Amino acid sequence: INVLLRFRVVVQGIPTLLMAAGSFDDILAITGFSTCLGIAFSTGSTWMNILKGLLEVVGGVIAGLILGLFLCCFPSKDQEDLVVRRTLMLLGLSIFSVFFSHVIGFAGAGGLCTLVLAFLAALGWKTDKAPVAAMVGTSWDVFQPLLFGLIGAEITIATLSPSTVGLGLACISIGLVVRLLVTFLLVHYGGFNLKEKLFISVAWLPKATVQRTFLHRFLQITLLLYNSYTQCSVQNLSTFKGCEHGPTHE
């Protein structure tokens, strides 16, 4: 979208199409991830985990609608530094939604709430949303390296085997090829020319932003499983050594 706006190539409603598809993709990813993660690692009922995933969607959308309507009304247009106030409130409510959803145990609802409240606020601000979008974009340029850099610092390159890296690249490549082909077929009869179809197909490739928000949960689960496995191994080794030497007598 930034490329289209930079070169003033805003035709056929492509930016709107990309934003709508990206938002739906984020909702699908958040909902699917939360539901599958709950089914895989939870000890409760499978149906309850599925119901929890649906509740996260409904709760996130409702909370986003409420906060989005709040941003449409406050701060009022007669206040000074309106753009700064709107930007700070938008970022603050988004961060609050994400952290609060983790506190109450509905982690997937925070991302959905952020998407809905930002979308609704932009609709309410209409033409006044451009300065806010520019300021949010500037803040994203600052925090994006931190977002990906911190999680990258948790990875030890020396411990990765070539076979693991190769299998990972193969899985990613297969997924990207399938996604490109499916996207191209979906927009084939949309009235676009060949260049526009190729551009939309490439633009719909995942940028790992949403995936990064989930990665810390994977990291936490992996560390918990590793610590549990290490403790069990130490206990089993101690028990084995005790049996090997036999009981001690004073």
Automatic annotation (TrEMBL):
GO biological process terms held by the UniProt record: proton transmembrane transport
Entry membrane topology: Multi-pass membrane protein
Keywords associated with the record: Membrane, Transmembrane, Transmembrane helix
GO molecular function, one term: antiporter activity
Transmembrane segments: 27-48, 54-74, 95-122, 142-160, 167-189
Compartment annotation: Membrane
Protein family: Belongs to the monovalent cation:proton antiporter 1 (CPA1) transporter (TC 2.A.36) family.
InterPro entries the record matches: Cation/H_exchanger_TM, CPA1_transporter
Domain (Cation/H+ exchanger transmembrane) ranges: 13-212
GO cellular component labels: membrane
UniProt organism field: Gasterosteus aculeatus (Three-spined stickleback)
Protein name from the UniProt record: Cation/H+ exchanger transmembrane domain-containing protein
